[in-house]
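Quick question: what would this complex look like in 3D?
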Amino acid sequence: ALEEDDSALKALVAEYHPSEIAILFEGLPQESRERIISILPAEVASEVISEMDAEFHPEKLLENLHPERRSEIVEELDYDDATDIISQLPEEQQQEILEELDEEDASNIRSLLKYDDDTAGGLMNTQVIKISMKLMKKDALELVIQQSEEMEEFYTINVIDDKNVLRGIVSLKDIIKARNNVRIEEIIKTDFVFVKADTDQEEVARLISQYNLTSIPVVDDNMHLLGRITFDDVIDVMEEENTEDILKISGVSEDEELAGNWKEAVKSRLPWLILNLGTAFLAASVIRYFDSSIARMGILAGYMVMIAGMGGNAATQALAVTVRRISLNDLTDNQAYRTVLKEFTVGLINGASIGFVIFLFAVFYDGNPMLGLVIFVAMTGNLIIAGMAGSSIPLMLKRVGIDPAIASSIIITTFTDVFGFLLLLGLASKLLL
Amino acid sequence: ALEEDDSALKALVAEYHPSEIAILFEGLPQESRERIISILPAEVASEVISEMDAEFHPEKLLENLHPERRSEIVEELDYDDATDIISQLPEEQQQEILEELDEEDASNIRSLLKYDDDTAGGLMNTQVIKISMKLMKKDALELVIQQSEEMEEFYTINVIDDKNVLRGIVSLKDIIKARNNVRIEEIIKTDFVFVKADTDQEEVARLISQYNLTSIPVVDDNMHLLGRITFDDVIDVMEEENTEDILKISGVSEDEELAGNWKEAVKSRLPWLILNLGTAFLAASVIRYFDSSIARMGILAGYMVMIAGMGGNAATQALAVTVRRISLNDLTDNQAYRTVLKEFTVGLINGASIGFVIFLFAVFYDGNPMLGLVIFVAMTGNLIIAGMAGSSIPLMLKRVGIDPAIASSIIITTFTDVFGFLLLLGLASKLLL
């Protein structure tokens, strides 16, 4: 369809919702994206750009546009979206775009560019509905309707005093229900949830999720209203944080873009593999220490691999459950203690079960019951250590303020490798040779 | 504080928001939870219960309550929350509780109990705001306010015809802004997003997130309005689905409760370890096949462990990135092809880099350049296979309709073990011995 003339293309894309076009874009080359953006009405183009995932680089679509057209599109964007997108461009281009905008839009975006991406300030939109607490019902209602003309959606109405200090919130419904001679200050809710501009985005997401809020006001240190964050921004934050968790626990840097190129992937993953190489040398040195035992009993090598494999997987299981649990809720000391105790028990039972199967194999296939016993003990011990390391290491990291997901499987599995080899080869050297 | 008398306890808990009490409950024994629930006002108790995470078993708090008190609390619950909680109880107790309720509440909850937990029907609340399309502005506004009395929050107003068929939606703001002589049908939005009762909850979450909706109507096959799902339910679904993804990718059954006891954990994890044991026997049999090579060159055992460790970790990295990418977006054939190609390149570069470090070690520490060369080739080949398996296996599973996260690290890492050993030991046997 992209080969036909513009009017056919226009008719085609007119049938899609902007968020659908944004998804469609992910499969299209950059030229096709630019061509479609150039023929869309400015308000649709701006919605498409704001709906695009950051990793498909919506900012690149602004680069080659005619300045006038670009201002049109940027002015249609919400300030928070405009800021997110513009902040991805080089400083010089940022200035160029801001200079093309009208004064009010430019100064709003400039003030948002000051905040860190992953704080409430970086997430917030400065367009808010706000009314004075002294207003009577009728005037308040009129003012709200008037302010809402420029916004697609609004949820909570912010109520301020004459110094722009946020004093409460109220819903449209409550204003409508109020009698005519009521002043807004009589019906506001004064115990509301709010965040400071420097609050971490994860904390914002937690509050919105815990209190089921559609939006949350952002204030400065003196309770002056700066903006608002809405639930849909938080849904995006949650997806982003969950991606980071899955990546980190698997030994991938949290900022690798899922759809990034191979260069980014190498940069993100090679350092973790090199770290793993260091710990693998440690495991290998345990094996070298028992060199002669292995040479005298080659059969041990196969069992070593089983010990390492099962230990690594059991540790990954305990790690995943513990890291996810910590990321959803803080654990008390007592809960943390019981978690490690539980993983000890799980390791004991799973280790003994797996160990018993291998014991049978060693007895009936290799005809060596003593070897079977050594492996049974080594497997059980290894899975106990795996469970305890997989649970206690992330818990300890959290306690000292380090992200527990960093205790990725890469670190934990080598830990179990070293211990498992020591146990198996040490016991084998003592008891079998 | 729990040791003091009830009035002190009452004063204490009165200072907390219900969702804070729900979190506090997670660290308390069952008796303390029951005692606190018994002294809270019914409307607070019901909010606490509805805010509790399913894995802390809010339904158990209902079991020992006096029937009258229990009805009070259940009647305060939203129908969807009441249904979720009651559905966790045995059939007999469900009936008992439903019989205590007033007829309307009981029949609403009964109809919701029919739907699967993880469908739109299972998520929805049947309490909705609905007005007839024929109403004039003033009557509509009055009806909305009247209906909203019983709801804590509402977002979208559903507009139906005289057969209860959903014809459109409208916002409170739009009704207020309308002129007095306007009929609702003139201002409704007729291209709105909705779901059927049997739509999967993941799809509901996707739609709410994609279109930034505060709530979405649920209809039957004939577009009769059944209920609504709100963004806060979807935030919970997203957390649940993300937990399942992290667990599955780590070889833990998706339904293991994070705070569950050791019995559940063994039941959830042991089957995966036994599956892994089967594949580990395969890797071990490769080693047994090269028994004599290892006996003649004991130094190989240490390098084997490095090959297995690095291959497993590189595969886990590729797997995490690919599974997460699939779970956020479907990939086109072309994108899938480019993903596997990218992982090939990443494996080649990372494998050659790591291989080169080990090559240097083999040359300068072991004084065996030929051994170094064998390891270099084996490591590079192994990491290429790791990347391609880690990306292509989940992509293929997705293509045939199987959950890609099931391609857990457990399966992929053994795959790379077998291949890595074959490559290392095969080359070593040919070239070194």
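Answer marked as accepted. The mean pLDDT of chain A is 88.
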